[in-house]
Write a structure and sequence with these properties.
The chain is mainly α and about 250 residues long. It has one domain: CDP-alcohol phosphotransferase transmembrane (TM) domain (Four Helix Bundle (Hemerythrin (Met), subunit A), Up-down Bundle), CATH 1.20.120.1760. Helices cover about 75% and strands about 0% of the residues. It is built from nine helices and two strands, in the order H-H-H-H-E-H-H-H-E-H-H. Strands 1-2 form a two-stranded antiparallel sheet. The longest helix has 30 residues. The relative contact order is 0.10.
């Protein structure tokens, strides 16, 4: 009789990354439910939880040596749901129901741009072996945070939508287009901190963490604006470098 190879068995610990991805998907779906019901703050918090899980699952998978093609595909699908679908649906019910046609068109543009951004990232990741410190276009988690910036500001200052309806839809579409643009954005995953600055970095991290816990919405507004400032700084720096080379 021919001997058959036994299927490889995985420990429960090795399944933790995929379990985290599934938990992120559940958080994104539940965020949509709360958004439809009008509980917007809870919905946004669930998307933030999904973003945290998204940032951890891949690293834990590599640490446990349990990364797989299935996990990578599952992570990409979770990213589309949590950062491409849920934020757009929340914004639609939060601010765009008075103009359903234009508002839903903006949701579609944003979501399609997000899925194209993820597809381009997956293709470039499989074709390149370099360790670039930059992305092309806004990453989908950053796009989700920026598109929800008006919600953060509204929760922070206790006001209604900070942008008029006629501007909210173009704003959402513009964030989507920035995700598929060729604008270079900083890859925090590839950043390296000099040893002499590690202590300062940890103090800064603790400060930011405390601000997010104590003043979550205000801190998120500042972080979003800081991210946009880094993008502008990189664009200006690249233009200056290009002029020098000319």
């Amino acid at each position: 009789m021919e001997s058959r190879e036994r299927p490889e068995k995985l420990t429960l610990i090795q399944l933790i990354p995929n379990m985290m991805t599934i938990a992120a998907i559940c958080a994104g779906l539940t965020a949509i439910r709360f958004g439809v019901q009008g509980n917007y703050e809870t919905a946004v918090k669930l998307i933030l939880l999904a973003a945290v899980l998204d940032g951890l699952d891949g690293r834990i998978a590599r640490y446990l040596n349990s990364d797989s093609k299935m996990g990578a595909e599952l992570d990409s699908l979770a990213d589309f749901l949590n950062f491409g679908v849920a934020p757009g649906v929340l914004l639609y019910f939060w601010a765009l129901t008075d103009m359903p046609r234009l508002g839903w068109m903006a949701v579609l543009v944003y979501s399609v741009c997000c899925v194209l951004r993820l597809a381009r990232f997956n293709v470039s990741r499989s074709e390149t072996t370099g360790d670039s410190a930059y992305f092309e276009g806004f990453p989908s988690p950053a796009g989700a945070m920026l598109v929800m910036l008006p919600m953060f500001a509204s929760f922070a200052f206790g006001t209604g939508p900070v942008l008029p309806d006629l501007l909210m839809a173009p704003y959402m579409a513009a964030i989507g287009l920035l995700m598929i643009s060729r604008i270079p954005t900083w890859s925090f995953k590839k950043s390296r901190i000099p040893r002499v600055n590690v202590s300062y970095f940890l103090v800064g991290f603790a400060t930011v963490g405390a601000a997010v816990l104590l003043y979550p919405w205000e801190a998120l507004v500042v972080l979003c604006l800081a991210y946009l400032a880094t993008v502008c700084w990189m664009l200006v720096g690249r233009k200056r470098l290009g002029k020098r080379e000319d």
